[in-house]
């Protein structure tokens, strides 16, 4: 008998944890900074409506209907006994490969964050002296402790992996569900503390103006496509995460409601996360356009302008770590569920095998990509960046595309039947969603896939 979530709130907290990771707290803010602020935020909110929520519902239907792992979910017979073509199992494999790809470098990012926390706490990276904390100071720390110190990063990455292992070996209910109930409130509390502190800074108004002010000249088709791609990352779409988590839902849950709430929560948290960063950046007179290094090199300078800088920096990086943890445990669970079902292993063995395999073949190469293996290039990128680019631009988007086609063209009436279970939505609304998924969503996702591949 497959375990089911204790209640809807627990499921929503877990899904929120899965989606509120580095996509919200690291990737979203630096993309906003690179793309002119409010224009990106506005399009992100629009993209969540036209792509995010419909796709969450697609994956929820596949998962709950099958009540199995993300690999076998595509082979469950239809209600009338019709067999599903075994070709569709490939979609499950794409999701598994994509999950491995993101975990390969994602856990290393977790190691980076823990490195910052440890060094700030021991004052080895002291942010309390505004005159000392310059761009060269933060850059030197990043280069010495992150880019050129694989041993230290490897140590903290291993710690982060072990924390994941401890939670996951306890299973869905005693592990993921139990810890999410603690981790998500902790994340929200820390988030509010940093946001309130930043909004009281002298230059906060300028940061807010940049962050929320929309420059309509920046609203271009390319920007919109880029934002649509970010929605995949932000909502863990195409990872198999939503399929795996929703496979533990009972038939009484309203899938439309849960998908909508998930999209809204993710959007709110992503937008709120910006208030942790841009007021501080503008108060310190810094540029928000430093890209992926915004959080690791630029933001520490901004924290130096805040009273109790080290304390607030530790709280901020704790937010990143908790957000990363709530996402990584659900990503791992995608693979663990397959290993457990296919090889009939208990939870502890499945967890150990999964995490050890990802660490050896994914985490270690990503760590070494900034050290001894820095000259090894894949698609003109180092190993770390290659895992990121291939997962985000190929596997996730392709998996989502096939999921939409699977629901619209293969499941058909079965998908409509599944969505009706536990729902009181009007039949016309369900039909409208179905035809949107069947005809329009594949076109939108195909455009994103082509745009992503063009960056090669």
UniProtKB/TrEMBL annotation:
Its main location: membrane. The chain crosses the membrane at residues 9-28, 40-58, 87-108, 151-168, 180-201, 221-243, 264-286, 306-332, 353-370, 390-411, 432-453. PROSITE patterns: NA_NEUROTRAN_SYMP_1, NA_NEUROTRAN_SYMP_3, PROKAR_LIPOPROTEIN. NCBIfam families: Na_transp. GO terms for cellular component: membrane. This is Transporter. Belongs to the sodium:neurotransmitter symporter (SNF) (TC 2.A.22) family. GO terms for molecular function: symporter activity. Keywords: Membrane, Symport, Transmembrane, Transmembrane helix, Transport. It is a multi-pass membrane protein. Pfam families: SNF. It is found in: Membrane.
């Amino acid at each position: 008998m497959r375990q089911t979530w204790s209640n809807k709130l627990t499921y929503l907290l877990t899904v929120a944890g899965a989606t509120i990771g580095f996509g919200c707290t690291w990737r979203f803010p630096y993309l906003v900074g690179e793309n002119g602020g409010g224009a990106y935020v506005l399009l992100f909110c629009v993209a969540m409506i036209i792509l995010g929520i419909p796709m969450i519902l697609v994956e929820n239907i596949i998962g709950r209907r099958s009540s199995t792992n993300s690999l076998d979910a595509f082979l469950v017979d239809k209600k009338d006994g019709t067999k599903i073509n075994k070709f569709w199992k490939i979609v499950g494999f794409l999701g598994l490969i994509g999950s491995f790809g993101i975990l390969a470098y994602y856990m290393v990012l977790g190691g980076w964050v823990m490195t910052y926390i440890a060094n700030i706490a021991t004052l080895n990276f002291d942010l309390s002296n505004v005159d000392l904390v310059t761009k060269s100071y933060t850059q030197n720390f990043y280069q010495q402790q992150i880019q050129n110190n694989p041993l230290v990063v490897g140590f903290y990455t291993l710690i982060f992996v072990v924390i994941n292992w401890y939670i996951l070996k306890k299973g869905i209910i005693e592990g993921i569900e139990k810890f999410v109930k603690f981790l998500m409130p902790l994340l929200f509390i820390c988030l509010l503390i940093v946001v309130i502190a930043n909004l009281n800074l002298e230059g906060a108004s300028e940061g807010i103006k940049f962050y929320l002010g929309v420059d309509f000249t920046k609203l271009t088709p390319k920007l919109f496509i880029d934002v649509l791609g970010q929605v995949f990352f932000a909502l863990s779409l195409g990872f198999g995460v939503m399929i795996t988590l929703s496979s533990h839902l009972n038939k009484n849950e309203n899938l439309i409601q849960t998908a909508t709430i998930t999209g809204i929560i993710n959007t709110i948290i992503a937008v709120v996360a910006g208030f942790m960063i841009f007021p501080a950046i503008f108060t310190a007179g810094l540029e928000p356009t430093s890209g992926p290094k915004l959080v690791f090199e630029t933001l520490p300078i901004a924290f130096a302008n805040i009273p109790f800088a080290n304390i607030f920096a530790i709280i901020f990086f704790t937010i990143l770590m908790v957000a990363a943890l709530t996402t990584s445990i659900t990503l791992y669970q995608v693979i663990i569920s397959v290993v457990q079902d296919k090889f009939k292993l208990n939870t502890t063995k499945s967890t150990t095998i999964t995490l050890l395999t990802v660490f050896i073949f994914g985490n270690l190469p990503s760590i070494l990509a900034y050290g001894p293996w820095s000259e090894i290039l894949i698609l003109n990128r180092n190993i770390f960046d290659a895992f990121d680019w291939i997962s985000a631009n190929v596997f996730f988007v392709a998996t989502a595309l096939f999921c939409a086609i699977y629901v619209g063209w293969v499941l058909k009436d079965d998908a409509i039947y599944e969505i009706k279970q536990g729902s009181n939505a009007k039949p016309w609304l369900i039909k409208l969603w179905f035809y949107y998924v069947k005809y329009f969503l594949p076109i939108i996702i195909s455009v994103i896939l082509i745009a992503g591949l063009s960056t090669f």
